[in-house]
Every structure is written in C-alpha cells, then in structure tokens.
Amino acid sequence: FCDQQLYHEHVNVGWTMWDGDAKKLQTGGYFAVGDNLTLADTVVLGTAGQTAQKSVDVYLCLNGMTVTAPQNKQAFQINGGYTLHICDCSSEKTGKIQGNGKFTGSGGLISIAEKGTLMQYGGSITNGCSSGNGGNIAVTANATYTIYGGKVISGVSNNLGGNISVSAGAVFTMHGGEISGGSAKTTNCNNIIMAVAGTMDLRGGYIQGGVRATNGTVKLSGTIRITDGTASNLSVNKNSIIKINGLLTGTKQVGVSGVTVFATGVTEDVSAFFFADTAGKSVAYDQEKKELKLV
Length: 295
Hints:
- It is built from no helices and 34 strands.
- The protein has strands spanning about 15-20, 30-35, 35-40, 45, 50-60, 65-70, 75-80, 80-85, 95-100, 110, 115-120, 125, 130, 135-140, 145, 150-155, 155, 165, 170-175, 180, 185, 190-195, 200, 205, 210-215, 215-220, 225, 235, 240-250, 255-260, 260-265, 275, 285, 290-295.
- The protein has a ten-stranded parallel β-sheet with strand order 1-2-5-8-11-15-19-23-26-29, with no helix packed on it.
C-alpha cells in the first residue's frame, strides 16, 4: 500500500525509472522519478481535444523527488481517457511537483481535460501560477479530480481559484490531504473556485478556507474541515447549495457565508458542525423546512 492509503495498491509491480520523457508515459504503466528533474516541456497525456479509444492509467511515484515545470508552462495536461495517479512512496514524503513562472491560461501546473482524471494519493502540488483560473490545478468541463492524501498548496491565480478551479460538469472529490496557502484576485476563493455547475464532494481532509461555490453543488460528509480562511471559509451564493451527504463528525468544522439558506433537505440538526463567518451571525436548523441557515 502506498502512503498507507487503502485506496491505492501496487503490490508486486515493476517500476520504471522516469526521466521526464513524456513519450514513455503514453501507453501507461508504473513509473518512479529517479532524481530531481526539470521538464523540458509540458507532459501531455493523450491528444488535446480527443478521448483515447482505450483508457490509459499512468502511475507516477514522486519517490521523494522534485519535478519542476518548464518555465512559464504547465507540468502536465491530462486529456480524455487518461488517468494520472500521483503518489509519493518515500519515507520522507518530500516528493513534489512545483511551478516555474506564470502559465498563460488556467491550471498553472496541471489541467485535466474532458474525460480526463487525476488521482492524488500523496506528494505536493505547489507554487503553480496562472493568468486564468486555478493557480495549481484546473478541473475543466466533465473532468475528474480525486485527492486521498498529499497537498495542493501555495498556488497563485490572477483570476479565481488560487489552488484549484472546478468547471462545468467537473467533479472534485476530497477524502483527505490538505489544500492551503492559495492566493487569488478574489480573496473568497483563495483556495478553490467552483465557477459553473460543478460538483465538490468533500469528505475529509483540511482546506484553509477560501472556497467559493458560485454555481453548483457542494456535498459534505465525514471529517472535512474548512477553517482559517482570511476572507471567508465556504462562501455559497444563490445558485449553489450544500447537501449533507453522510455522517458529519466534529463541531465547528466548516465556516459558512453568503446566502441565508445554505443547505436544504437536511433531515437532522447538524448546525453544530458549522459556524458563521460573518460577525453577529449564527447557524440555525429549521426542522420544519429541513434547512440550515444563517440568522
């Protein structure tokens, strides 16, 4: 098991040392970074605008090493039909993918195209910078990103989503790990922006506030914690809604702001799980309407 995550297993697997050559990854397999390296160009998995006829899984163990993006370019583009699995099996857990200047576009370090998938089990994705949305990662239309462990940190966006942006039809699921230290032009989305009809399924881990749900669904369950935001923690507008998607554990785990009624279809009083970001406000449960609201 990698990083002690039960979701990720590679027993009796033959690993190939990877030197940054994108061609070696195109047919899938298990690769480990042998030494610190700077990519000569963006690693493009598949073909832009196309979906591979057969699904391809690329497992990349950072192995405690640092992979640096080309100057002012992304490190990885994941196209349709490809799944990139990122882990760090080193005892030090120091493996990371880091930025190198500003990328013109969205997803400063990694972009996930339609029907593409990113699975993160460990390692850090850090110091990406974009002129668009998602300083570190852009989950574009109908793409998928799931994080079980590791970190997404210190991304900078000149627009929205300092660390991550989630677009129309995209699904972002968080079981664990950390998302923090992001910076965006709009401070209430310093870490994550869900801009248009996306889905965020937040089950565990820690987000340092700055999550903005402009349009879409935020599912909450488990031990997810969204606190310590500089402007707000979880900001929900009138076109978005929070759904309680399972047992919630803990108290004052998620700070909320925005619309008065922020969660509907709530079958029991879980108001203690939340707290109001706005001074003078509190979170209340309306048993008759089965709503959570700011009062």
